[in-house]
Fold:
Amino acid sequence: MNKFRTKLLFALITLIIIVLIGLGIVLGQIFKNFYMDTFNSRIQKESRLLASSIQENGSLNDIDPSMIKELSDILDVRITILDKSGSVIEDTESVNPVLDSHQKQMINQIGDKWDVKDKNKKLVISGKEYRYYWYPLKKQDQSINGLLIMSTEVDALEKGTGQIWLVLTISLGLALILIIILGSRITARYTRPIESATNVAIELAKGNFRARTYEDRLDETSMLSTSINILARNLQEMVTSQEMQHDRLTTLVENMGSALLLIDQRGFVVLTNRTFREFFNLKESQLKKVRYHEVIHYQQVNKLVEEIFMTEDRVRKQILLPHRLERKHYEVYGAPIIGQNDEWKGIVVVFHDITELKNLEQMRKDFVANVSHELKTPITSIKGFSETLLDGAMNDKETLKSFLEIILTESDRLQSLIQDLLELSKIEKHGFELSIEKQNVSDLVGEVLPILKDKADKKGISIHTRFRAEGVAEIDPYRLKQVFINLISNAIVYTPMGGDVTISTDEDADQVHVSIIDNGIGISEEELPRIFERFYRVDKARSRNSGGTGLGLAIVKHIIEAHEGRIEVTSEVNKGTSFTVSLYKIFPEQTFGE
Ligand code: ADP
Structure:
């Protein structure tokens, strides 16, 4: 930018120098001409004056040499007076009044034109320039009497004009220096904002949108600075919002649960997200300039992409892909990307992991199958015994009684199964809410025991209690009674005659713990994780015989989860089982199922 200022200044100064030189020449000439004209006219006037004074005297011989000498000194000219014959009568320069060679030459030049008045002539005589003025001296009858010559060296005149040139040069030189100083200041004043604006523009072009210029003056240049700053601010805002949009989009794409793949029209991978890379076990560096089939080794996926390339149509498919040790269900949606002018830009493929949905669907199917199976057994039994009775067996009182008893048992089982199913569906229903109350957990367990006393007595099982918890917890007493009845009842059912069941309560700062420990048949390690599943029974015959539905622990687990609590189980086959329920003293405010 300094270059611009230098160029501008240089051009301006050159122009000014040319103008000043031109002006100097013109002025010099004018001054010189004026000086010369003034000098000439003065000498001419003087010579006329002298001539007329000589003429008045009448004779040339009466001329007073001292007066001529004085006049010559005043005028700084050489005065020569010739008589009619051309001989020198008076000369202010030479002692000897004889024409010197210069004067002779001059006289020769004038020739016979003596009577031409007010004439002057410039002659170059032996290297020196002289200016001569002559005036004819006449008698009273107007006849030529002599000649008055005034001469001066041009050098003396030149001295005068030289001074004019000197004065002109000095004054114009000073003017030039002044103009240069002021000019550089003025150009600096006007070019500095332009320089600064240019620098900001360069910074903006480089991508530095934080660059700003000064806006300190109120003139045209400040408009440039203001506009540049507005431009910079707008650009910065645009870039910031673009970056924000880009970040949002990147975050969205990177963190979406579904895997995303973008392929260009030549089959090169353009964009993938984290889920995609995790699923296909790929690193970002592996996805640079590669075709999709080089990184995807699942034939089904590649076929789907090919299909979109061929048909240029959307494709939606459910595919099962092996992933490490599991198999995952994906709903793959692929679509061609068509640009604004119907140009083919590539393909986008989205993989939704629907494994959980599929599992849920399977669970629902299993549940329906289990329910039907569970219902089928008592109903078949009731139907079979009723038909046998109707076929004639009812006539036999003994058979009638025993069959009716079986029908009653099966109906009870049916009833408890339906009750448990209803209970489970109620708990699992969206929006299921507990009626939380402050209750002493040990007291609650104490309230449950009388209900199960008969059952325990029948098997000669002793129930021991060790209540060490005094604390009160925020719980739903009705639901927790269900939990403890289920757990204690299971302990009684799965413990042989004469066994022991111990119920203990304990507490720490936050929680109350209830343990139901039996010394019964126990559960093997492999079965342990499955006992909370619906309809899962370790020993199907024993469970059925005891009136179990296989839904008890599923209900228990749901209720404890609704309390944000925890249920843990440890067991050893033929040694016994221990269930521990942990409940928060202050109920964590969360609604189950939401
Ligand atoms: P059920 O109605 O059959 O008892 P649950 O859901 O209550 O169903 O229990 C599931 C299975 O877990 C039972 O069938 C039984 O095999 C096992 N089980 C539960 N509690 C105990 C226990 N205390 N001791 C041994 N096995 C148990």
